[in-house]
Each structure stands twice: as C-alpha cells, then as structure tokens.
Amino acid sequence: MTHLSPDPHLSTPRHLEVAIIGGGQAGLTLSWHLKARGIDHLVFEKKTAMHAWRDQRWDSFCLVTPNWQCDLPGHPYDGDDPDGFMKKDEILDWLRRFRDKLDPPLLENTAVLKVSRRAGGGFTIASSAGSFTADQVVAASGGYHVPIVPRFAERLPADIRQIHSADYRSPQSLPEGAVLVVGSGQSGAQIAEDLHLAGRKVHLAVGDAPRCARFYRGRDVVTWLAEMGYYDMPVERHPLKEGVRDNTNHYVTGRDGGRDIDLRRFALEGMALYGLLQDLEGTRLRFAPTLREALDAADRVYNGINASIDRHIAEHSIDAPPPSVYAPVWVPETEPESLDLEAAGIGTIIWCIGFRPDFHWLDAPVFNGAGHPVHHRGVTAEPGVYFLGLPWLHSWGSGRFSGIDRDARYLADRITAGTAEVRRAG
Fold first, then answer.
1. How far is residue 266's CA from residue 330's CA, in Å, rounded to a whole number?
2. How many whole angstroms separate alpha carbon 414 and alpha carbon 379?
3. How many CA atoms lie within 13 A of 399 on its CB side?
4. Largest CB tally within 10 Å, which of 200, 241, 295, 310?
5. For the segment 221-273, what is each residue's pLDDT rounded down to a tens digit?
6. Which GO terms describe its molecular function (predicted)?
C-alpha cells in the first residue's frame, strides 16, 4: 500500500486535484476510478483503511446479503460460496486484498479537522498531519458517525454497564445478568439473537424496523429483489422520494447459512419483548404500548415483499415452489409498560438505536436542518463538493457492496469533468 505523509519542510501546503475524506470501501473505490483516470488525489483516513469492519462489528457478525453481491472494481467475490454470507474475518480478508490490489494513495491515522473554501478557488484542508489544498473534495466517511444514546441514560444505575452496538463483541464479554437490547433494527435484532443463542436472558425494546424473509419460494429474497430491479431503483422513483433515506433496514440474518429473524419465536423461547423505550423513573424503565403494532407492521412488510415476489413469478411464468403467508406464532397478551432493572437482574444495556451524521469539519452550505447532506447522486449544489458511501445515495444498492462501484464511477465522471476544467483554466 502507498502510505503517504506530508513534508513538514514545505513552505506551501501540498496541492491535490482531489481530496477524498474517508478510507472505507467507498473512498477506496473512488480512488480506484481516479487512479484509472490519472487524477492526482489523496485518501485521508483518521484511523486505518476500512477499520469500521473490524472495530464496529461483533465477533459473530456476518453479511446479511449474499456473497455474490460483493463486487468492488477489479475485485468481485472470489470464494467458493457465492450464495453464502461471509463472516467477519472473511470480510476483512476480502477487503484487505482489495486494498492491496488498489495500492491507494492513502494517509492513515490522519484526522481532517476542517475543509473550507479558499480565496482563488478550491479548498483548504486542515488535518492532524498538516495543511493541504485541493480543487475538489469528496466526503466518503459514510453517515454513521456519532452513536445515539438517549440523554436519560445518564440517570441509569452506575452498576449497569452501558454500551452501544458498535462496541458489542460477544455474550462472553458482558457482565453476568440479563441484558436489555434497545432497538430492533439489523444490529439490535442480530445482537439479541446472538445473546439469546448463548443462553443469556434477553429483554428487547422493539422499534419500528421492518423484516423480510431470508428465503422464499426456492431462492434468497435478495436474489429475487435484485432480479426485480429493487436495488437499482433511484431515490426519485421511490414512492417516499428522499424520505426513504430515513427508513430502517429490514432485519434478517446470514448466520449459519441464513435464516429469518422472528421476534415472536424468540418470545416463545423466553425473550421478553417491549414497545418503544420512553423514559426512566428511578430503576424502572417505561415503555410505550407499541409492541403489538410493531410486530404486526414488521409482518406486513414481510408478507408484502413475498407477495411482490409472487407477482413477479406469475408475470414471468417462473417455475418455483408454491407461495405462503407468514402467520404469527406468538401474540403478546398484554403490552408491558415498565421494567424494574434491579428486579429483572439487568447487568447490561446495549443501545442499538443507530448513529447520527457529523460533518462538522466540512464548512460548506450543503446540509439541511438535520445536518444531512443535500445532494443528487452525491453531487451537491456547491461546486467541487461531493458525497459518497451514504445509504440511498442513489438507490437501495448504494448501501451495499454491489452498488458502491456504480456510485463511485458516476462521481468519478463528474470529478473528471471538473478536473479538466481546472486544468484548462490553469
């Protein structure tokens, strides 16, 4: 790999045609395209390349999408199980080999402190490794920056360990006692399962995340949806338009070859389910009476996706096993509205309620009131400022290995045009 560092003896900052902020798969994929076009660039990474896959995933983590969807430029999945789901170590090895093939111009362990427009054009980049200038800047650091933890967590008893999903590693790494998992998105549902399978008593505060089947009518549901074009649908064609970017991903797992995650079945097996967590009074947590509707809503999405597959099969006369409809295996008799932490023996709370973006370092008028970037396919209204690696940047596929290359290629074309313009002017 090409490791770079600034020369402290230079009287003027090093100038780049393009600065890429973020050394994850998105930033490195864009680097691949810029190298192919002969555009001078540098990838800034505050830790190490693609560190989040190592540092923010638990030990039993595996992909929830089939391996065949892993397709970075010049580096498709090359294992012997395209329909399987790579485990954490396999993902890290695959990504390491991509990085080694690419040999990117990469500046690791370097935090970008501020990017601002400079007089005369382009940008000034202040970093922990010195100053740089660039004609164009790409924020490729993703959108999951600051772990979300509710403010009332400060009032929880000091003897209860609190961690965010990004810091969870294994059931064995937690103190003794029951575990409260807050949030039922992909991370929350899978962590709850991990603990449940290890024999830990799990209490789960269920949110509004939808779910989907792992396999249906003889194929992985992802394979069906890909064939139906769901991952290629652009934001502007989605019924929710840009609102789809706020959606929570469906919970499902690739564990042990892949299967559904059915919270109702977990309840039959002893997991305690609750509605949305609202507040804390002493040692007692309060929940909204939303559990029944949350489970029903998740099942409606589950059956709705399967019904769309049924229509696709019928319209194209595809030979497939017969259809089916999921029927609840458990229904809550009551809506539990409180939980006494001490009486329940809760030793750990795991917050699985997501992250918020933090682009404080980017001084540019490209954000909405919630701090989210405003863009079209990563291109902002501010000349020379781009985003890459965001969920639903362009389509559902943007948040998957299968869609990164397309998004990066699109931006590379725009960046190339901008570089040509700067070169002509210079």
1. 9
2. 8
3. 21
4. 295
5. 999 999 999 999 998 988 888 877 878 889 999 999 999 999 999 999 999 99
6. flavin adenine dinucleotide binding; monooxygenase activity
* Residue pointed to by tokens 């501020």: 114
pLDDT tens string 317-326: 999 999 999 9
What does the block give as tokens for 160? 């209860």
Q: How far apart, in Å, are the Cα atoms of 16 and each of 12, 19, 42, 374, 378?
A: 12, 6, 7, 25, 20
* Residue 8 in this model has a pLDDT that exceeds 50: no
Residue 289, token pair as written in the block? 């009476």
Q: Which helix (H) or strand (E) holds 137?
A: strand 130-139
Give how far the C-alpha of residue 12 lies from the chain's centroid of Cα atoms, to the nearest Å.
Answer: 38
Copy the structure tokens of residue 192. 């709850």
Burial of 298 (0-12, 13-18, 19+ CB in 10 A): buried
Local structure of residue 347 (DSSP, 8 states): E
Residue pair 146/156 in contact by the 8 Å Cβ criterion: no
347-403 pLDDT, tens digit per residue, is: 999 999 999 999 999 999 999 988 899 999 999 999 999 999 999 999 988 988 989
CATH number at residue 19: 3.50.50.60
**Quick one: three-class SS letters along 176-197?**
CCEEEEECCCHHHHHHHHHHHH
pTM over 0.70: yes
Query: Which of 333, 299, 339 has its CA nearest to residue 205?
Result: 339
Strand 123-127 and strand 112-117: the pairing is: antiparallel
178 and 313 part of one domain: yes
Domain boundary among 318, 351, 384: 351
Range of the domain at 65: 2-145+357-425
How many separate domains does the chain show?
2
Beta carbons within 10 angstroms of residue 345's beta carbon: 12
Angle between helices 88-102 and 25-36 (to 10 degrees): 20
